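Quick start: read one record
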Amino acid sequence: MAHAVASKTHSIPDLIAAELPQLRQIRHDLHKHPELCFEEQYTSSVVQRELLALGMQIKTGLGKGTGVLGYLPATNPADESKGAVGLRADMDALPITERTGKSYASLTEGKMHACGHDGHTTMLIGAARVLSKIHRPRPVTFVFQPAEEGGGGAEVMCDEGALAGENAGGLGAPVRAMFGLHGWPTFEVGKVASKVGPLLAATDDFEVTIKGTQAHGAYPHFGNDPIVASAQIISALQAIVSRNASPLDAIVVTVGAINAGTADNIIPETCKFIGTIRTLRPQTRTLAKERFFSIVENIAQAMGCTASIKWMPGYPVTTNDAEATETFFRIARGAFGGDCVDTIDQPTMGGEDFAYYGQRVPACFFLLGLKPRGASSYPTLHQPDFDFNDDALPIGIRALVECAIKS
């Protein structure tokens, strides 16, 4: 079991600075070995190695095999009853071919850390290193989860008891509050930001197959064209945004791919398209699904075709608890100064499975600046030239550490 080493001679920034050279090496190593959702065996092994080196109690095999929990008790055993503060990092990469040209670029063709989860994992390892050396007024649970990129690893971890304490599938005391972060390329290094309420959108995906009647391209009257029907449907779906939802209610309907046909003179039997819908309110989410089915099915019928819809409910809205978020703002302003802490005006329509933690306990998710100071732009998330900025590591680590000891 790890024991705190109270230190009056070293501040938290000093402790972080001492760890940074090794943490950069860990981050670069993770970057070289990207793994897709629920496949994070190497990443999980690195996390386990680092936590065990601290003498920390861990639990493995969560999240369909690769998730890891770490636990540091409160310095004073009497404080265990306060419940734990949870800190989370996601570990998975993306199916993208890297084009950064970095010396530590991905060694696996077609996979890369294009969303910065290598940085998130490294910062939580760093937070564990620092917290193992200082006084902890409450216990801390470290949640290293797989499969944020579409696999819903957070929900799996929660269902397996990651936040519930040692008597219900987790470790130590139950988690009473949760904090997590994401690197953000449009904010400068040194900045952190968040907001109360909805921060990221609910994500629902769809797959539609329109079936018509195949015919010669020169004789369309002998068939029912699923491509024409799909074109009408795809255009009409934008009416959900422009005519069914309030102009002040954020909603996105995107068709990301269309596939049909084999030759230029054949009207095919089927046309398939896939896409996503993003919403910020439960009522709008329900409305969007209802209108989607109605538009697709009725236009297909009107065009002499049939529609088969596969609806894939995704992550719920990531909603920040008011008290937890105000606590984050207080802590961040104290640590970094008011000029470095921003309140986000509007939610972003990206999705995050951190939402599942917020459904179980009061939670705050915040954004960490990655753009180099003075730069006009920086490669953004899910782009092949994106790389987590190492200069953000100490800021993210400190934010996590401060949330653990001052919330």
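The domain at 202-313 is CATH 3.30.70.360 (Alpha-Beta Plaits).
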